[in-house]
Design a protein that fits this description.
It comes from Streptomyces gardneri. By secondary structure, the protein is mostly helical. Helices cover 62% and strands 0% of the residues. The protein has one domain: AhpD-like (Up-down Bundle). It is built from 7 helices and no strands. It starts with 10 loop residues before the first helix and ends in a 14-residue tail after the last helix.
Length: 157
C-alpha cells in the first residue's frame, strides 16, 4: 500500500509537525508514567484503526520493556487482570475521549473521577493532551493511508 500523501515532504505539514512533535515531547517528559502513555497511545490507535500508530506504539512499548501479554490484552483491558487500577482508569478515559460520538456527552463524570483518583493535575493534563494528540495523529495517518510495519523504535525521539 502506498500513502496518499508524503506528510513529511510538505512545507505546511512539516511546519505543523514541528509544533506537534514539541507538544508530544512535553507529554512524554511529563510525570505521566511511560507505560501508561504507551498503553493509552496503543488503545486510541486501535479504536481508530491506525495501523502505523499501532505498529509504532507496540514496538516502542516492547523496546521499553512492556510484555507481550499486556500489549495483546489492551483491546480487552476490562477483562484482563494484568493492568493496574490506574492504567485501567487511563484506558477508560482514553476510550471515552476517543469515542466522543458514541459516548453521549463525551467523558462521563464517573470515568473522570476514577482517573482523578490515580493521577494528579499535571498527569491528567498530560493524559488529556495525549488522548487528543493520538486522535489527531491517527486521523492524519488514516486519511492519508500511511503504511505500517516498518517502524523502528526511537525514530521519533
Amino acid at each position: 500500500m502506498d500513502a496518499r500523501l508524503d506528510l513529511f515532504a510538505s512545507p505546511v505539514t512539516g511546519k505543523a509537525f514541528k509544533h506537534l512533535m514539541a507538544a508530544g515531547k512535553a507529554v512524554k517528559e511529563s510525570s505521566l508514567p511511560a507505560a501508561t502513555q504507551e498503553l493509552v497511545s496503543l488503545r486510541v490507535s486501535q479504536i481508530n484503526a491506525c495501523a502505523v500508530c499501532i505498529d509504532m506504539h507496540t514496538k516502542e512499548a516492547t523496546a521499553a520493556g512492556e510484555t507481550a501479554v499486556r500489549l495483546n490484552l489492551v483491546t480487552a483491558w476490562r477483562e484482563a487482570t494484568v493492568f493496574t487500577e490506574a492504567e485501567r482508569a487511563a484506558l477508560e478515559l482514553a476510550e471515552q475521549g476517543t469515542r466522543t460520538a458514541d459516548a453521549a456527552g463525551g467523558v462521563d463524570d464517573e470515568v473522570w473521577a476514577r482517573a482523578a483518583l490515580h493521577y494528579d493535575e499535571e498527569q491528567l493534563n498530560a493524559l488529556v493532551l495525549l488522548i487528543g494528540f493520538m486522535n489527531l495523529a491517527n486521523r492524519l495517518n488514516v486519511i492519508t493511508r500511511q503504511p505500517a510495519g516498518d517502524y523502528v523504535p526511537g525514530s521519533f525521539h
